[in-house]
Amino acid sequence: MMGWKEIPPGMVILEPGSALKVKTGSWRAAYRPRWIEENCIQCLLCWLYCPDNSVKVKDGKREDFDFDYCKGCGICALECPGKKGNKAIVMEEEVK
Amino acid sequence: MTKIVAVTGNEAVANAFRQIEPDVCAAYPITPQTELMQRFASFVSNGQVKTELILVESEHSAMSACIGAAAAGGRVATATSSQGLALMWETLFIASGFRLPIVMPVVNRALSSPINIHCDHSDAMGARDSGWIQLWSENAQEAYDNTIQAFRIAEDMDIRLPVMVCYDGFIISHSIERIEYFDDEIVKKFVGEYKPLYPLLDIENPKSFGPLILTDLYHEVRKAHSEVYKNVPKVVLKVAKDFEKISGRKYGLFESYMLEDAEIGIVILNSAAGTTKDVIDDYRNKGVKVGLLKPRLFRPFPYAEIGNALKHLKALCVLDRADAFGGSFGPLYLDVAASLCNFDQKPILINRIYGLGGRDYMPEHAAGVIEELRKIAKTGKVKSLKEYIGVRE
Ligand code: SF4
Ligand code: SF4
Fold this sequence. Notes:
The complex is a heterodimer. By secondary structure, chain A is of the alpha+beta class. Chain A has one domain (24-93): 2-Layer Sandwich (Alpha-Beta Plaits). Chain A has helices at 45-49, 75-79; strands at 31-35, 55-58, 61-65, 89-93. Chain B folds into two domains: 2-247, Thiamin diphosphate (ThDP)-binding fold, Pyr/PP domains (Rossmann fold, 3-Layer(aba) Sandwich); 255-388, Rossmann fold, CATH 3.40.50.920.
């Protein structure tokens, strides 16, 4: 653990991307998103709106969720336009 | 080279801003600060400075924009008074916690309610524990000089903290006085080029401000933060020494006036110190050994130095231009008393509240306090520890 003498001025974090070390997915409560690939139009709105790192994109294409960072907030499901009115993200009850 | 002019305190500070030319100013008008920012705004619109002036919808936004601009890597200034400072309160702690060297003149004005636009110190006293350095100024010259020094103090790499420069609303902000202005070049050289620390706009080196820190580290962060304030007096004195070289004017952590051989003394901030010094001169001519201490660096409060400067007195009155409702004494008194409490030899202390909401502080008020202190020094008896003076029964 860090002692007070090691604290950087203003607590500025100088290491980029260090939030990856904190797996906020452990906070997820009742619901988790499920991606339905056949309804996905690859608009990447889910990636844009997700408050954490759980929507993965590779070579400009959406991949499945990374649940290490998903808090189950449902913003992605709300924003997802889907295909012809069929959502590509649905929220489902978390199975413990 | 200096130029001697007759200007208001606000005009002098606006001129200091023009000479320093901060990268960003975000401000909202409030009496009695308005004239300062209005004058600076005309420097901006006349093209005399390249400062980005952001007009915001409130002081909360003004300070928020200043924090953003300073974190981005700019030299940043703003100014406020009274309710404006109160509205900034939440964000003041963020500016100091982020160690952003923002400079903010606070043109002291009473707080509501009742609403009042005139001078007292309740605004700045309310923000005294926000982590901002506070420099207090007796007159327009000191307000101008402190503003110039504030940038160097704030930006010193050993501290990197925001600074408030306090001066009395209307009494100083709107009265015309004789001021010595430096040439622009001298000021620009004195403050030097701004060196940002961890600028967000340095996109080659991404960084994050404002992390969430919980029970595992917050206590350590605050301990580290409290240590920084120990470096402040040293930096203030170093900057004052450099400032003396260009101005011939001496600044310290506080001003001592006829204090060394004094038996009784007064501690008082800002413009009322001037009136008090005049009255002290009269009493000295009559052979009364009275002196004065006027704090300049009020935050961080230089406890050891102030305690040492006052401990030899027999009786001491701390005059507060702000009350601390429901607390024991006025805010200045509390710090002075704490500075003295561990000395074996120390004066008998009293606290007098004066000048709230712009009530005039007259020579007879200072004389009344001196007469009371003479009695206390002679008899050792105190009638009341805390009392309002200049108040109608
Ligand atoms: S539920 Fe919330 S956290 Fe999880 S992927 Fe969707 S937007 Fe991100
Ligand atoms: S918002 Fe919906 S449609 Fe757009 S990329 Fe994400 S899952 Fe696919």
